[in-house]
Structures are given as structure tokens and as C-alpha cells.
């Protein structure tokens, strides 16, 4: 009689997050804890870690120290993997501070180990916005002093040449920064790029404005800066220039600067309507309340809503899905709701349509209620509800369950508004993951658990499901120990605050190897 080659037999896929197959520790709530290898622990921590932020079970200093140690170890052991990781973390992963810290700590570790190469590439991969070279120097000098090693300087200089232009100077070279553009240039000795003949003039003007020399930008080589500098005088002569969208754009006026300059000189609704055409996607998203309070017209609001709901705009913006939930909860009027729901759905484009039946368990325990960051009203429970509900809506057949001390189903239908479904979740106390899995598993084809993995009790959660049934854990916190094995057979873990990890489910389910997001598959 065949033991293995039976009906339903299929090759087991492999996931990149590799962990122990037997527990070596305990979760923070006392359940069997499974450690991961260095790369896996670093990845899960990086995609959930807002640097310098307290979490439910780890203090900010403890968490940041663990992150630094993992980054240093990975950078020395496998620099090619680490460089790809840093670039992905800053880009698709959209974790700005974490990428900078990882790259600089990795470079420091390689220098200390006497390992040559890669450090420059690590640093430049992490810097993708014009304020980040200054951020990198601020971090380095605070931790290691003003002596900046050559590979770090060169990595930052590469980013400077790529990122510094007129509009970025207007936006980011301000007195609130400890390291102005001029300071960065002096420290890293960046040279203008050969295909940017205006950049030498920009660098010189950065030094002049830093030292208050009163230099006026040349209207031919730096036209945007010249108009921006003169714009304040123009407003004093005629305030209605603030209501001309073309003039605002030509002068590179940020919405913050325009509002400050306007004061009570012009109508706020008219000012917003002039600013909106040149505002970026995130600026629109964060100002919906201001638009309502100022009384922006329905016609202009419709234009904003169309941009918010546009799937291409959503993709380019790289917003975390929870930002749309935050905007929905903060906006006073209902005129944004449909657009935000469409935007949220578009931001979850990686969520697969899974055939068969799926049990989706969403952790709503106390530890999931801590905020994602000190500046956020949202928490990991909100993120779990968002991802769990989105997955359930796209499954051919799904049982969506919230759990904590107890568990209960959450109603979901494909025609529902995702934002409304999220409001159906409640707080559920402790983290009795094993009980929830055992009581809700009904021979579904797969189980997905969205959680921080800090289960309580003496049982291992995934053992409540037969080994032939895949269990996918989506980790939203990055603590050291997980609640089950990972990386082999039918037990896999992925993580993060974006939908990118969803790509792994159909790959692993079909017996393929799911590579790291920045690597090509075998």
C-alpha cells in the first residue's frame, strides 16, 4: 500500500523564512517558541520595525539593538544578499529609517571585520529620497562620531548626485535639519553628475544659502529656485498669486510653505484648490480633513477622489494599506469613502485569489492593540484585520475568524466594502492561538494566521492542523520566537506591513520555491 504517492500528493514548496523544526525557547506568553536563522529573523523584524518605537513586548532600545546586531551579522556573512535586502526594504518595503540603519550598521560591521567591498553599495541602496543623505550622516555621527569612513562617504555621495535637485532643495534643505545640503556636500565631497550641468550651480548655491551669503539663484541655471526665492515678494505685491496653480508649480511651492505664506491673505478653500493640482499622492491623502474643514468644493473633491482611487497612482505612491484606513477614519465627510475603499483594494493587489477553502485567523489579542508607531492611531490589530479580510474576500471559500482569549467568525462577502468589514472586528483579550485553530479548523484546504505569534499556553498552534494541510503564518511584529516551525513541508512564515508577502502563498502551494522578494525564483 502506498504511503506517500496517494491522491492529493504534491511537492512541498519552500519559503525563504527558515526556522527551527523543534522549539528552543518560549514566546513572550509562554508557548513553545521557534527561533529563525539570522536572515529570517532580520527580515521579519525589519518589515515590521519602526526604529526607535516601543512595542508591547520589547522596549525600543532592546528592539533596536537586536535589529542592529542582526544587520551587522548578515552584512558580513552574505553581503550580496544583504545589499539586495536593503534596497528592497527601502523601495518596495517602504521602510525608510530601517533601511538606513541596516545599511550603515552593515557597513560598520564589514569595516570592523576587515571585509572589503559592498559597503558603498549597501549605503547608496538605502538612500532614495533627498533628505536621506542627511539622515544617514546624522545617524552615523551620533553613533560613531564625525569621522566617516570612505565607503560610507562614497555611498552617500552617490545618492547625493542622484537625488539633489532644485525641488528637493526647496523641500528638504531647511533650517529644521541638523545636516543641511551644504553640510552633506562638505562631509562626503560629492561631485556633480556629468549629465546634470546645472548641478554644480546647485551645490554652490547650497553653500551660499547655508552661510547666509544672500546669493540669488541664476534664472537660467536654477529657474525654480529663483522663482521660489522671489515668490514671497510677489505675494506681498499681490496675494492672489497664491491662487494661481501654474505659478505655484513653477516656483516649486510646497503646500506647507504656501499655507504659511498665505496666512489670512486669501480664502483657504481657494488656496487648497490652487495647491491640489501639484500636490503629491501622500499629501492629498493626509489632508482630506483639511480639505473638508476649509470647504473645498465638491467638484475639486471629486478630482482628488479620482486620483486617490486610481490604481496606477496607488501603485506609484507605495502607501501601506493601513494609511487608507487611517485616512478613512480621520476624514470628517463621507465623500472620500468610496475612493479610499477602491484605493485600499488597489494597494492590496498582491492578494491572490485562492481556490478551495481557506481558514483565515486574525489575532485581535491585547498585544496586537499597541500602535504601529508613536505617531499612528493604527495598531497591528488594524493591520491584521485589513490583511485577513482582504484575503478572505478573494478566496473561493473562506472562514474569517477573529481570535484572542476566545474566537468568533467575522462575516464577509465579496461585494462588501473592505473598510466596513474592518469595522466589524473587536478586541479579543489573550492569545489562545492553539485553541482558535483547533476549534475553527474544519478540514479546509489551507490555514492562514495573521498574528504577532506570541501565543500563550503549552501547545504549539500549527500542530492542531494535519501536516498535509498548509499553514501560513503572517507575522506582523518581528519578535524573536515564532509560534511554529517554518520553511519546510507545509509550515511557512512571511511578514510585513504591506501586501507583498501574499505572493508566496500560491507559489509555495504549487510546490515552487518562494524566493526573497528581491531575488528571482529558481
From TrEMBL:
Which InterPro entries does the UniProt entry name for this protein?
Answer: TROVE2, TROVE_dom, TROVE_dom_sf, vWFA_dom_sf
Q: Know the name of this protein?
A: TROVE domain-containing protein
Residues in TROVE domain copies: 25-356
Q: Which family is this sequence assigned to?
A: Belongs to the Ro 60 kDa family.
Q: Where is this region: Disordered?
A: 1-33
**Superkingdom of origin:** Bacteria
Keywords of the record: Cytoplasm, Metal-binding, Ribonucleoprotein, RNA-binding
Coiled-coil positions: none
Q: Which residue windows are transmembrane per the record? A: none
> Where's it found, cell-wise?
Cytoplasm
Matching entries from PANTHER family are given as:
60 KDA RIBONUCLEOPROTEIN SSA/RO, RNA-BINDING PROTEIN RO60
Any Pfam family from its record, for instance, is: TROVE
Amino acid at each position: 500500500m502506498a504511503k506517500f504517492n496517494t491522491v492529493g500528493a504534491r511537492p512541498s514548496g519552500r519559503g525563504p523564512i527558515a526556522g527551527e523544526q523543534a522549539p528552543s525557547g518560549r514566546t513572550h506568553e509562554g508557548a513553545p517558541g521557534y527561533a529563525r536563522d539570522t536572515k529570517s529573523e532580520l527580515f521579519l523584524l525589519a518589515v515590521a520595525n519602526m526604529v526607535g518605537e516601543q512595542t508591547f513586548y520589547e522596549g525600543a532600545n532592546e528592539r533596536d539593538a537586536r535589529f542592529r546586531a542582526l544587520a551587522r551579522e548578515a552584512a558580513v556573512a552574505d553581503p550580496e544578499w544583504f545589499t539586495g535586502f536593503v534596497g528592497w526594504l527601502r523601495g518596495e518595503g517602504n521602510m525608510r529609517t530601517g533601511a538606513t540603519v541596516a545599511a550603515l550598521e552593515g557597513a560598520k560591521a564589514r569595516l570592523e571585520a576587515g571585509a572589503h567591498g559592498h559597503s558603498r553599495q549597501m549605503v547608496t541602496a538605502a538612500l532614495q529620497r533627498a533628505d536621506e543623505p542627511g539622515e544617514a550622516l546624522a545617524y552615523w555621527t551620533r553613533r560613531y562620531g564625525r569621522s566617516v569612513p570612505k565607503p560610507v562617504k562614497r555611498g552617500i555621495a552617490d545618492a547625493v548626485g542622484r537625488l539633489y535637485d532644485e525641488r528637493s532643495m526647496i523641500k528638504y534643505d531647511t533650517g529644521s535639519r541638523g545636516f543641511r545640503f551644504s553640510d552633506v556636500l562638505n562631509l562626503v565631497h560629492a561631485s556633480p553628475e556629468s549629465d546634470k550641468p546645472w548641478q554644480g550651480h546647485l551645490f554652490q548655491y547650497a553653500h551660499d544659502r547655508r552661510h547666509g551669503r544672500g546669493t540669488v539663484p541664476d534664472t537660467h541655471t536654477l529657474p525654480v529656485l529663483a522663482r521660489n526665492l522671489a515668490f514671497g515678494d510677489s505675494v506681498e505685491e499681490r496675494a492672489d498669486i497664491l491662487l494661481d496653480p501654474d505659478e505655484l508649480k513653477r516656483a516649486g511651492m510646497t503646500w506647507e510653505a504656501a499655507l504659511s505664506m498665505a496666512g489670512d491673505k486669501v480664502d483657504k478653500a481657494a488656496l487648497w484648490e490652487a495647491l491640489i493640482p501639484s500636490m503629491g499622492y501622500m499629501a492629498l491623502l493626509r489632508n482630506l480633513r483639511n480639505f473638508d474643514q476649509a470647504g473645498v468644493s465638491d467638484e475639486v473633491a471629486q478630482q482628488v477622489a479620482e486620483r486617490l482611487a486610481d490604481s496606477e497612482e496607488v501603485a506609484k505612491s507605495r502607501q501601506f494599506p493601513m494609511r487608507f484606513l487611517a485616512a478613512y477614519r480621520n476624514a470628517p465627510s463621507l465623500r472620500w469613502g468610496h475612493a479610499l475603499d477602491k484605493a485600499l483594494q488597489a494597494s492590496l493587489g498582491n492578494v491572490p485569489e485562492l481556490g478551495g477553502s481557506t481558514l483565515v485567523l486574525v489575532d485581535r489579542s491585547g498585544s496586537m492593540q499597541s500602535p504601529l508607531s508613536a505617531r499612528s492611531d493604527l495598531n497591528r490589530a488594524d493591520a491584521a484585520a485589513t490583511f485577513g479580510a482582504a484575503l478572505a474576500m478573494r478566496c473561493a471559500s473562506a472562514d474569517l475568524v477573529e481570535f484572542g482569549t476566545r474566537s468568533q467568525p467575522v462575516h464577509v462577502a465579496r461585494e462588501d466594502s473592505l473598510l466596513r468589514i474592518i469595522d466589524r472586528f473587536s478586541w479579543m483579550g489573550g492569545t489562545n492561538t492553539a485553541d482558535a485553530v483547533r476549534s475553527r479548523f474544519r478540514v479546509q484546504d489551507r490555514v492562514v494566521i495573521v498574528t504577532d505569534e506570541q501565543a500563550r499556553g503549552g501547545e504549539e498552534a500549527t500542530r492542531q492542523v494535519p501536516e498535509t494541510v498548509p499553514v501560513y503564518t503572517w507575522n506582523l511584529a518581528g519578535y524573536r520566537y515564532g509560534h511554529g516551525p517554518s520553511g519546510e513541508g507545509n509550515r511557512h512564515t512571511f511578514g510585513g506591513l504591506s501586501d507583498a508577502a501574499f505572493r508566496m502563498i500560491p507559489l509555495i502551494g504549487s510546490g515552487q520555491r518562494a524566493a526573497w522578494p528581491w531575488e528571482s525564483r529558481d
